Amino acid sequence: MDILPFFKKIVKEHQRDLVANDSVYNAKFNYAINEIKTSRYTWYNFIVLNLFEQFHRVVNIYFVVLLILQYIPQISSLNPTTTLIPIVFVLAITAIKDAVDDFRRHRSDHSVNNRISHILRNGQLVEEKWMNIKVGDIIKLENNNHVTADILLLSSSEEHNLVYIETAELDGETNLKVRQALPNTGDMNDDLRKLSNFKGAVKCETPNNHLHKFTGNLYWGEEAFPLDNEKILLRGCTLRNTEWCFGLVLFAGPDTKLMQNTGKSIMKRTSMEKLMNKLVWLIFAFLLLLAIITAIGNSIWESSTGESFQVYLPWEGFASSAAMSGFLSFWSYIIILNTVVPISLYVSVEFIRLGQSLFINWDQKMYYEKKDLPAVYRTTALNEELGQIEYVFSDKTGTLTQNVMEFNKCTVAGKRYGDVFDEDGNAVYPDEYTSKVDLSYNMYAQEGFQFYDSRLVNAIKNHDENCEEFFRLISICHTVMPDETSDGNLVYQAQSPDEGALVAAARNFGFVFKSRTFDTITIVEMGEAVEYKVLAILDFDNVRKRMSVIVQDPKGKITLYCKGADTVIYERLDAHSDEDMKKITEEHLEAFACDGLRTLCLAKKHLDEDAYNVWKEAHDEANTALEDRDDRLSAVYEEIERDMILLGATAVEDKLQDGVPETIANLAKANIKIWVLTGDKQETAVNIGYSCNMLTDEMKNVFIISGFSSEEVEAKISAAMHEIHASERSNFSTNLHDDDVQFINHTSSEENGQSVSILSGSTDQYGLVINGQSLVYALANDLELKFLELASLCKAVICCRVTPLQKAKVVQLVKCNKKAVTLAIGDGANDVSMIKAAHIGVGISGEEGTQAVLSSDFALGQFRFLERLLLVHGRWSYVRMSKFFGYFFYKNFAFTLVHFWYGFFNGLTAQSAYDDWFVTLYNIAYTSTPIFVLAILDQDLDDDFSVRFPKLYLPGQKNELFNVKIFFVSLFRGILTSLVLFFIPYGAFSTGMASNGMDMTDYHTVSMVISTCLIIVVSLQAALDTSFWTPINHFFIWGSIGIYFVFTFAMHSDGLFQLVPSQFPFVGVSRNAFTHAALWLTLLLVVMICILPVVAIRFAYAVCWPTYAQKILQIQLRERKKEKKMRIKSPDNFANNLKQRFQTKFKIKRRTSRPKSGYAFSHQHGFGDLITSGRMSMRRKNQPPGSDNRTSEIATVSGSPAIESTDQPVMTETYKKINID
Amino acid sequence: MSRKPENTAFKQQRIPAWHPLLTAKSVFPTFLVVSVAFIPIGVVLLVNSQNIIEIMHDYTDCTSVEDNSVLCSSVRLNQSRMEETCTCQINVSFDTSMSGDVFMYYGLTNFFQNHRRYVKSRDDNQLIGQHVTQSTVSSECLPFAYLPNGTVFAPCGAIANSLFNDSFTMIRDTTVVPFLQTGIAWPTDYSQKFNNPSPVNDLSQAFSSYIRPLFWQRNVEDLDTVTSNSGYQNEGLIVWMRAAAFSHFRKPYGRLDRSSSEFENGLSVGNYIINVSYNYPVTAFGGHKRFILSTTNWMGGKNNFLGIAYITFGCVCMCIGVLLCCLHYHARKRHVVHVDK
């Protein structure tokens, strides 16, 4: 929330105008500085602002108004302290909580704002905190630095003024991107004097959230240079593989695209809370109604009875007439009945959620051992919503997948390698005990490389020609950049992780890609360096789906190496090639695809020099063509990439995170629809869709929506709808749903120890794939509902190539049009907008930075923990909250309405039925703890069963456990209880007298009897609602009854009375009343009348209409009993059994057939162009003399050597990312 | 240091707990026990209540002894005849003796002691013996707090002002049946809530700066001749000051003095005359006054309500129990088919 926005001067910015190094000029515009502020309070404005915010809550205002009313003696029916104490209590507790929360925000802001960056001041580099960076400053970034603000790249250490950046935090893409400075500014290099004198003026767009667009001009000297996105480094990126660069700050702090993209943080409220707020209004209305009834009643009473009673109680001044009395009585009743709106409701809710959240943090089963990451709540306002999720929007990379590619299998000349077999010859998945192949012969081998099939190594060692060619191709045909770190480690920079994995695999097997220049490539083949001349790189694009490299070996032999999607390669094979091998390879490809691997075919072709020269001419001509260059080049490529010989195929595994398919399957059973929103290519996304069980072969159809115009998209959507409707009609008769039937199948099979299958197979299932391009149209106003309708008919929805904003829009679409609760889960900064848009955002603490986690509501280490978060914690929270609300309203109605009934016996004069102290303490001391503990600890079913029976999740989605109907039931029960509470004591005490003849029909005694009955009844009611009796529950339920007696005796004691006689008028009442047998007999009767019918009704419901949860509970209790018996009989056996039972019931399924997904190179063209044009090479730009001195200069100026000056550690890390799990 | 959560039963939500379930095994016995227990309890209570002898007489419209043609109530209605005494005679006879303690009560109906403004129209500080002045007296007492000249009423407030001031004398043959007007207020009230202002041994001095409430005929220090029952500590006043919960109520007036041998065992069978000095006007607001004589037992006075309620609820429980039984049996038949298939 923006704090006091009206204090800020808001001047609409039309154009950003700045001059480098001219702080005086730039200061005119009051641009935001680079400080980020997410905290709300400072220590000096805390009290005022916090109170101000708290009084935004209608309830708090309500209670203060009541408090003021109570100070008016004419209408004060209760002592003001009865409201004052609770409201101070509530405000104070909330304030403390807010203070703690804000303190955390302060700390995180502080750590970001105080990061150090280097800034050019007066011709020198000085260290400066991030928050002090201003627009127009020139800053220096070094390798692996986070980009401080949105800057214009001026110069860099690399040739051609290139820099490499990783944009993972910004858009989630982990591949490196290239930015290039203007040659003119680039000439300044790192000459500090020139940079200080740089007075370029920039006029550009205003702050916005378009990550891939930038327009502006640089005016320098006489010239104007257009600026585009290629020259801009955005905050949130990380500099990689670049020693240093200089940049001019254009946007800082809140104006940066990163911050603009994170959007406004909205206070998220759960649907239950919204319902609660509505109900509070309803209660207000109810309160008004009661007050009006009593006011009218009072007027009537005063005019009929009260008027004649004036002898003893004259109408004085303020109550001069019956009407006036009625008016005053209206306010008095507002005061006295105010407790129907429970003052402690909100604060209780907040603390219950805090407790529930702590349990999320503490859950060992959501702790990710490998990275030492426990689950973390980041907001405590949303717990019960976790139990109501209907849609999950998931990012792919880093969330479902590990973003790790592994060379897994291959087929070379018809032989398949890479499978692992157990002793019996069955294919198995390798585990930690499987022995890896021995790669010790190769000095470049990496430790983390995993491959288990030694046959392949043997083949290479035996110089099997096919294998050698196979790996030679892999090591040559790519656009990976090598880099040698200072300690001699070889690391690769690949644009796509697939390619990186392949090149790394070749390296491990002994074909080491060592270095490249723009026209050569050096491979160390089994220890022997060979330099190939690169004649041409026929780069990848999405249409060609292949890439080729033409190289000449040292002997002069020219070879074309090609890799690409199987279909594309097969079309271009030599007609006379070995048909058998083609067939076998195809079979292998099929098998790989079924294992969920990404496949790629490899082929080669020998060229004689003449043929090559002819082609070369054509190529050169095409390359220099001015028109249709791309088309003509493609045609030329096409010409040479044919009649190739198939070498084999590779299979790369896009490693899923652990347990993803199982989690998705289980969530699907819980009727949670999962949509994958990814920036990845369609093929990759679909592939992952299959491997994580979202798309299955059982699906009747997977619709692919991709079009370039609104009409096209609409047509495709309509066609899909048509197909679904058509098949639905034909299936209508067989489409039966019966919960009970399913349940029985379920339990019986469960008891036989077989695997569980809940989903009914009778409905047709569909999948939907849509790409970002089409999504633009599908999300337009006229199509969005149609799209949504289609999407909700599909079991799985995959959106690929979507931008962060589109992700948010998709979420919004569902959120606004479906009355469903949505959850978004992701790990990258590109997921931030969707995480914020969804009802609940979950961040995976992954490798792509922490942006997602910072804006999330819950942070998890792994996707699979989502299952437990939703099915266990979410469900529990929902069930607990539902019980809490139902009970809370009940107990306050029961408590308050007694006043109303009593009114009819005292002329509706708003005489309270209770001691003021009892009213004060009722909510905060006597009745709050049992339900509070219940709402934190209750478990209607234990966690194992909640996961095993995902259908238990359904009541939450359908809002079954707390809704308006249940509220009215609470109200009704409250009314009944209050009636019993009043009329039974009335009957017993109105004419009674004590056994010693004394008075016991007095107001004090009767009020004591009623309050005692009330406490016992509501405590027992809480006990009845408790389904999980821990010692803590016992302590608080019986304890709060005990506390009532202790406090009551204390309040009625002589000591307190003598201290303040006017405050404790009930002195001696308890001592006197508790000796009456009539009190105890009344108590017993009232309690039984209030409780037993509830028992009877609940039992009757459980017998006649048991809920799913109740049925499962019976199974649970039965099983627990069995376990107990077993444990007593044979403890060892028991442990084994238990282990077996909880082992994953999901066998790895082999799919029979499915579309093979091709290779995913990268989204754009590869680096090929850059390499051949010579723009990109790994040689450093010639450093101007004295640059070393300057580096040391920084150290002296800053006085701190803590600059990440070597790029080695991170490069290794990146390298590992490619190869190591 | 690992951030792994601790493996404690509490944090892992695995505290050993009891999972109660509403099963036939627990529900039926509950209803059985309740109905089996409640009906006898109810019967005992009812019998108990029936055994109590209570004599009640509404004397609101009794005729004046002084002038047989007038009702005392009309005398009291007439402002000009306020000072006149009016006495009523009530004849009571009973055929079973009232053994043990016998208490005399007066009952009022339609008297709203529980009216909000009435309930709080008192000053507890004054009643515990603090001296109050016009400025310190509780404003709740208004308009019965002080005279226009600033003299504070002792005691102040509407409750005190409306003190019940009929008096009863019970006569058997010619002897006056001795009723004590002490020991009828709560001991805690007598010792804590009501104390005379200083000097406690000279009440006329203590109350000299105050004036008696408007409707009173005697000063507060003259309520009884015995000092310990005078001033604020007069038990009749204390009893009155304890506001009744409902508009129909009874308050103890006296208890039989059983020290003499004649009344050692209570009141024997016979005819009794009660002389009522009729001072308290109630007819203006439609109220009634009753004279009540009652014995007590361990349950207190006569009240059939609890007995009847217990019996009724016991029966209801039995019915519910039977109904549930049928339901259960019926549902189990259905259920068996379902689960065991």
Automatic annotation (TrEMBL), chain A:
The keyword Transport does not apply. Residues 20-84 form the P-type ATPase N-terminal domain. Pfam families: Cation_ATPase, PhoLip_ATPase_C, PhoLip_ATPase_N. Its main location: membrane. Its EC number is 7.6.2.1. It is a multi-pass membrane protein. Residues 1184-1209 have a biased composition (Polar residues). Residues 1174-1209 are annotated as: Disordered. It catalyses: ATP + H2O + phospholipidSide 1 = ADP + phosphate + phospholipidSide 2. Keywords: ATP-binding, Magnesium, Membrane, Metal-binding, Nucleotide-binding, Translocase, Transmembrane, Transmembrane helix. The chain crosses the membrane at residues 55-72, 84-100, 279-301, 321-347, 884-905, 917-937, 966-986, 1006-1024, 1036-1057, 1077-1101. PROSITE patterns: ATPASE_E1_E2 (PS00154). It is found in: Membrane. Residues 853-1107 form the P-type ATPase C-terminal domain. NCBIfam families: ATPase-Plipid, ATPase_P-type. PANTHER family: PHOSPHOLIPID-TRANSPORTING ATPASE, PROBABLE PHOSPHOLIPID-TRANSPORTING ATPASE. Belongs to the cation transport ATPase (P-type) (TC 3.A.3) family. Type IV subfamily. This is Phospholipid-transporting ATPase.
From TrEMBL, chain B:
The lineage of its organism: Eukaryota, Metazoa, Chordata, Tunicata, Ascidiacea. Belongs to the CDC50/LEM3 family. It comes from Clavelina lepadiformis. InterPro entries: CDC50/LEM3_fam. Signal peptide: none annotated. This is Cell cycle control protein. Keywords: Membrane, Transmembrane, Transmembrane helix. It is found in: Membrane. Pfam families: CDC50. It is a multi-pass membrane protein. Its main location: membrane. The chain crosses the membrane at residues 27-47, 308-331.
